[in-house]
Fold this protein.
Amino acid sequence: MNWRAQAMSLFLLGLVRVLTGAQARWHGCPPKAEQRIYFANHQSHADLVLIWAALPEELRSITRPIAALDYWSATPFKRWITTAVFNAVYVARERQGDEDPLQPLINALSSGDSLILFPEGTRGFEEDPQPFKSGLYNLAQRFPEVVLVPTWIHNVQRVMPKGEVVPVPVLCSVTFGEPLALGAEETRADFLHRARTAVIGLRDV
Amino acid sequence: MTQFLRALSPDEQVSLLFVLLFGLLLLASGVAVLFSLRERQQPSRTGKPSQPGDLAVRLHVAQLSLRDAWVMAVVFWIGWALGSGMAIALFGLVSFFILREFISLSPTRRGDHRSLVLAFFVVLPLQYALVWTQHFNLFTVFIPVYVFLAIPVVSALGNDPQRFLERNAKLQWGIMVCVYGLSHVPALLLLNFPRFAGREAFLVFFLVAVVQICMLVQHLASRRLSQPVAPDISASFHWRSWGWGLLAGGLSGALLAGFTPFTPLPALALALVACAAGSLGHLVMKAIKRDRGVTHWGSAGRSVTGASGLLDRVDALCFAAPVFFHSVRWTFNL
């Protein structure tokens, strides 16, 4: 990381902590440097920054968030901040040609990185997250040794609702739950439903 | 003793005060450490497995309060050492954090976003800037008059009629308590008492000390009592313990009169006013917390927010400071 990205990362960490507290709560698994996929509810663009800030320093460097290609590479600044500071993996939300949209994630997992995933695919406005998309299932099938950690992000939609630019200080927390594993006989729909229930279940712990 | 104190320069007097304060804290921390040692030894002596008993919980609570007391003392010390400008900035920061706690536990809707931005990034800094520039008249009416109108206007422009009054009332309350109330503490530093220059820090110390003593005595006195006045709101509020708290606060105010520009009798009266306002304000904040379904603003009630419970420590001060400030100003025609 060059000094500019370093400075930006320090600045963002400070900002996120002053605004939200960025408290991490480990319920069901310790913060551990193993290969993981954290999958979380998605309500705001700030979700990515909040999980990133809540992870301890050692995990932050090996964990890469997924960023939507169309939004996060729209301007040079967004592109710089996602690549240089967050070290994000870009995913296209629309399928282009016959390229597998999961290919960048598969590359990242093959090289040993951990990922932060928002299986809803897009930001929701309701209390409960939307149904999960199948990407999580495909990755779980392909990489059975990677630990799947359900994650609930609390309150962040109040910090910066869609369409607003100035964030508001509200205390937020990120709860990491007990890891899930894909059952041998489990169908796609069952697994995705179980994963979604696990994420929602963390809301009230 | 008094002769010796009077011979010291104002700066030396304040320094002595801080030495005493930190000494007391050190003593209290030492006692807490000894207690925690005894707690660990007990199971080995009796052979029974250790139980997280009542004492352990109480000790934990005491340690947390002690930690907060240390933080506040250090904040005061830094504030004094770096001059009144820095003290005002520090209180502004405390305001920011307690307003953040208050807002986190009061549900807001998307339409409130702009009002929240206004509250945090315009009203709060402006209020403390008014304190700093000593615009005392404007600073006392800025929030009750101008912000009172501005917040609902911005909310109305947010185009969301659902629970409009309720949401705005919450925000107004948050600003009144966390910003307006607390900003009166550093404002004390800027009161111009004749022949009192350089020792304004004593006025802040006087207020904080009498209110804290009152709260502490009230808390201790209520332990033995049953049948609280309003059991659904506070299990520990009794008229008798409240009376003991006021008595202790008032008497300590009279004892501390030597540090202040007041003679003992007015000091007693002002301490009583501050203690009554602070302890009743604390009761009101308890009612708000109960309404929200929590017993503390901090992590004990609902750990989801991760709040440190700073508001629990300073809410009495938030109510006592404006009342004390204006009583002093009008009594002494400042």
Remarks:
- Chain B touches chain A at residues 96, 99-101, 103-104, 108, 110, 113, 116-117, 120-121, 303-307 (CB under 8 Å).
- Residues 33 and 131 of chain B are 40 Å apart (CA to CA).
- The mean pLDDT of chain B is 83.
